[in-house]
């Protein structure tokens, strides 16, 4: 996961608007490390709503294969047939089939989509950039789940004295170790 959220944990306004992301001070036109992150990624799995948002930008920014998770979308909009592929089914099966195609490092994007992966403990790394705004309401990055997942802090950067970008790695118990 590589995502930006408000201080209060929202990734978009209730209506899906992400204008507040573009208001971040960025005099040098930095990508804040996005290209570096993408260079290690084999493919992107994004929720249908995130796909519709990025398709609405007009300019396609991805050079890696994109898989759109959806059970309602039967075909991609005209012009996107060679840019993305629709997928659905069990997340573990989806991951296994992408791994078989040699696509190992998957970038998971979209609120409900990420929540589905978290629910099944399928997130290995989380890069979370906090934007200094309290939106008050919106589309949440996280929702309630039944279990706790431990992460190790890898690195935190303060970007343009405004953004707090933290990388976390999932720490999983070794099976049979008996340790928490
Ligand atoms: N702040 C940021 O960095 C950032 C990053 C990404 C996105 N966003 C914003 O977040 C919003 C989108 O997030 P969201 O939570 O509304 O939606 P989302 O995760 O992008 O998309 C949700 C949709 O994905 C499909 N989906 C998710 N899990 C599925 C599963 N296991 N099986 C089948 N289909 C599945 C479903 O599509 P169907 O209904 O078609 O079945 C579901 O309605 C947009 O406004 C976007 O701009 C912000």
Please tag this protein with its features.
binds NADP nicotinamide-adenine-dinucleotide phosphate, 180 residues, 5 helices, single chain, alpha/beta, four-stranded mixed β-sheet
What would you say this structure looks like, in words?
With 180 residues, the protein is of the alpha/beta class. 21% of the residues lie in helices and 28% in strands. The longest helix is centred in the middle third of the chain and has 10 residues. The chain binds NADP nicotinamide-adenine-dinucleotide phosphate (NAP).
Order of helices and strands: EEHHEHEEHEHEEEE
| Residue share in β-strands | 25-35%
What is the terminal separation in angstroms? Answer: 25 Å
The level of helicity is: 10-25%
Q: On the 0-100 scale, what is the average pLDDT?
A: 95
Query: Can you tell me the overall shape?
Result: globular
What binds here, in terms of ligands, is: NADP nicotinamide-adenine-dinucleotide phosphate
Poorly predicted runs are none
Supply Rg. 17 Å
Placed side by side, the strands forming the largest sheet appear as 1-7-10-9
SS field, number of helical segments: 5
In short:
Helix content is 21%, strand content 28%.
Layout of strands and helices, then pairs:
Blueprint lengths: L1 E5 L3 E3 L6 H4 L11 H6 L3 E5 H9 L9 E4 L14 E4 L3 H10 L5 E4 L1 H9 L5 E7 L7 E2 L10 E9 L3 E8 L10
Parallel strand pairs: 1-7, 3-4, 3-6, 4-5
Antiparallel strand pairs: 2-8, 7-10, 9-10
């Amino acid at each position: 996961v590589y995502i930006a959220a408000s201080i209060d944990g929202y990734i978009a306004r209730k209506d899906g608007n992400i204008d507040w992301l573009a208001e971040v001070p960025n005099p040098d036109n930095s990508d804040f490390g996005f290209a570096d992150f993408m260079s290690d990624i084999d493919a992107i799995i994004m929720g249908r709503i995130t796909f519709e948002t990025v398709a609405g930008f007009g300019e396609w920014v991805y050079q890696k294969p994109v898989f759109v998770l959806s059970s309602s979308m039967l075909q991609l909009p005209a012009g996107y047939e060679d840019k993305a592929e629709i997928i659905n089914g069990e997340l573990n099966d989806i991951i296994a089939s992408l791994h078989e195609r040699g696509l190992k490092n998957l970038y998971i994007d979209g609120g409900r989509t990420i929540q589905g992966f978290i629910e099944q403990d399928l997130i290995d790394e989380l890069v979370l950039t906090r934007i200094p705004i309290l939106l008050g309401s919106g589309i949440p990055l996280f929702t309630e789940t039944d279990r706790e997942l431990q992460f190790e802090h890898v690195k935190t950067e303060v970007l343009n004295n405004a953004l707090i970008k933290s990388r976390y790695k999932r720490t999983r118990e070794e099976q049979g170790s008996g340790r928490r």
